[in-house]
Structure formats: C-alpha cells, structure tokens
Please model this.
Amino acid sequence: QVQLVESGGGLVQAGGSLRLSCAASGRTVTNYAMAWLRQAPGKEREFVAATSWSGITYSAASVKGRFTISTDNAKNTVYLQMNNLKPEDTAVYYCAASKVLFTNTRDYWGQGTQVTVSS
Model:
C-alpha cells in the first residue's frame, strides 16, 4: 500500500512560480514510479511529468522548459517545480504512483492540490 499526500498549491499570478510536493509513504514506495497529472474544470485528466526514484524523468510537451519534476529520496518526496505559470495551467494537480515509469496506468493517487493562475 502506498499513501500520497500533495501540498504546495495556491493562487499565483501569471508568470509566477509554485513548487508542489508529494510525500509518499509505504514500505514499497520506492518500487513505484511517480507522476504528476492535472485536471482542469470540464477537461479530462492529463499527464504532466513522471520520474523514477533513480532520476529518469519525462514530461508533457505543454510544460517542457517550465516545469521540472524531481525527487528527494531521503524524504520519499516528489516535487514539481512550476515556473512561468500560465492561466491554462490552472487545475487540480494529482500525484500518482505506478508500477512502471512509462505507462498510463496509475496504481495509487493522492487527494490533489489546487493550482490557480490568474491573468
């Protein structure tokens, strides 16, 4: 069993930055790859970025160059550094764990954290 708790969301002006955190717990958490996904109002949930605990990462084209995913293995925490935020980044951001890195199947989800970008 893996538990995921997100934090760090909030309201920010366009062009600003936020850092989201996902605290992961559970005996086997490091056996899972970690990802951030988001869901805007009226839209389907979409992939943002993913990482292994060994540092292999990839991200969606829409956020490349602006968002960076990283891990602190000592704290079992995954971060999403978001820079140059745009109003279209407004969404609930979810942390998720999956058995493999390159997949659309997520085995565990956090509760989500709201990010709102004002223009």
DSSP finds no helices and eleven strands in the chain. The first strand starts at residue 3 and ends at 7. The chain has a mean pLDDT of 96. Residues 69 and 80 are 5 Å apart (CA to CA).
